[in-house]
Amino acid sequence: MSTQNTITQPYWLPLSSVLNPQSKKQQALIGFDEEFVDIVDYILRITHRIWEQKNIGLCYRYYADVCPVFTLGAYGENIEDVIQGTLKTIAAFPDRSLIGENVIFSEDGNEHYYSSHLISSVMSNTGNSEFGPATNKTGRVTTIADCVCFENKIVKEWLVRDNGFLVKQLGLSIINVAKHMAKVPSKEKHTLWLDEEFTRVQAIDHRTPSTPILDGELAAFAHNWLDTLFNQKQFAKIHEFYSLTATQQWPSGRMATGLAQINGVFIQFFANCPDAKLTVDHLAITPFDESTTDVAIRWSLAGHFNPQSDELSELKNLPYFVLGASHLRIKNQKIIEEVTVFDEVALLANLFRAHALNSQTELEVNA
Predict the structure, then answer these.
(1) Which of 171, 205, 240 is the last residue before a domain boundary?
(2) Which of 4, 61, 221, 240 is spaced 20 to 30 Å from 52 by Cα?
(3) pLDDT tens digit string along 295-307?
């Protein structure tokens, strides 16, 4: 792997430098357009061209014809699905900006590259969206897009977006929006994928430490972080993973600083799913500077819903599945910054959809 000090570093990089890199080629990028100097440059520039410049047709150049895209709320499997989804989002939020905060990458062999792209977007809701009619309000949303790239094209993508925080900023209720979205039936392949993933994650032994999928201390640290806090719920050990002044950003606007607040975020989340199990599905590690390293983790969590709100009581014990991603900045073997993203709106919509299906089945059985 190339060292980070020679790879494009997006942190506080002016847009003019992003669009016109001056460095020599840092990675082989076999099969990619010659203009791209490394995989980070590729991700930053194609994102700008498609989203910022609204060149939607460039998806044909930068996405494979068959390109599975997994999200908690939907599943796409080809380039036409990618274009349709992109157009729908831009139609609802025409001025959407995309600020590339970080790209953590790995070279996965056979000329495949894996990128985990942390994005902040500011956008105004002037068109109807999946959330409902236009609100004409502006919000900020955090997204992590994990992509497998091969020969100038994205061939597979896992997309997580903090729609919960966005919905709140638009002045809407997360529960009401989830009920609205649940009225739209899921595609059969999406439902099948959710069921298969829930079964896969539930089958693990969450009390046994997981085997790191990469070598090295930081990979072991990341697995231990997830095993200890997410799987074993040993929150008293939080000081083993976070610095005293660590910051944490979680979905729906949860922000925490320091061990006590971070502990509170975890406990409140797992109160909703006490039997949760988690698997590490991908891990990438990239140096940030001489003393700090960035770690990207894509993970899946499955359990059964234990709602803390009376409004959601009808959903109790339903299968609870989360597709999530986290970016960690680690210094001196402690997390100093964490950004964790998943879609709480889609999570609830899936629960409401499952409840409606169960209710319909009961009616048919009792008819």
Answers:
(1) 171
(2) 4
(3) 999 999 999 999 9
pTM: 0.95
> Could you give the count of Cα atoms lying within 13 Å of 267 in the half-sphere of its Cβ?
12
Amino acid, single-letter form, for residue 263: N
Q: Which residues pair with 120 in a beta bridge?
A: 99, 142
Residue 181 lies in a domain: no
Q: Is 161 in the same domain as 13?
A: yes
Written as one string, the DSSP assignment of 2-51 is --GGGS---TT--HHHHHS--SPP-S--TTS-TT--SHHHHHHHHHIIII
Considering the domain boundaries, does residue 344 fall inside one? yes
Contact 92, 161 (CB under 8 A): no
Owning domain of residue 327: 194-366
Nearest CA-CA partner of 348 in 292, 294, 308, 291: 308
- On whether the CB atoms of residues 46 and 37 are closer than 8 A, the answer is no
When divided into structural domains, the chain yields a total of 2
Q: Are residues 227 and 346 in the same domain?
A: yes
* Per-residue pLDDT, 359: 84
Read off the pLDDT of residues 210-236 as tens digits, 9 standing for 90 and up. 999 999 999 999 999 999 999 999 999
Strand duo 254-257 + 277-287: pairing: unpaired
